Amino acid sequence: MTTSWILAFKQEVLWYYREQKEMADAALARCDDQTFFAHWREDGDSHMNSIAILVKHLSGNFRSRWTDFLSTDGEKPERHRDREFIQSDEDNRAMIMQGWEEAWQILFATLSALTEADFARTVTIRDERYTVQQAIFRNLTHAAHHIGQIDLLATTLQ
Fold first, then answer.
1. Which of 59, 56, 32, 46 is nearest to 158 (CA)?
2. Which of 64, 118, 131, 146 is the most buried (most CB within 10 A)?
3. What is the Cα Rg of the chain in Å?
4. Which range marks the domain in which residue 45 is found?
5. 51-66 vs 93-113: helix axis angle to the nearest 10?
6. Burial, 58: exposed, middle or buried (Cβ in 10 Å; 0-12, 13-18, 19+)?
7. Is 122 helix (H, G, I), strand (E, B) or coil?
């Protein structure tokens, strides 16, 4: 790969993540606390995740994937992914949103710091090897999926 291609790719990826964050933040701004924590659908399906849970999940995912991205498995032992899908009595919007902002900062700092040489490396996620580009695409599509859910819920639950 040439340097110009790598730098252009990195800038495009950063742009797409920023677009996703802007869409999510706009949706979150439209939500009152009742909407943010709502998890029941009109048909009684209790398996629908609340916006709060989706935010917790993405925050945990970003923190795990992007912390020490190049040197450790993207699924950190301290993550406890299953807990991200539990809405506890201790959860409050301010705490969840603080984790959201911190996780995005980790993502943006890690992506911004990637060098040309880093794009020739592989990383591990859940004991599987990925090129840096594959890991980025994997995470970006995962984020876009859940951010689309957040946007839809913010619109329909109001």
1. 32
2. 64
3. 17
4. 3-156
5. 30
6. buried
7. strand
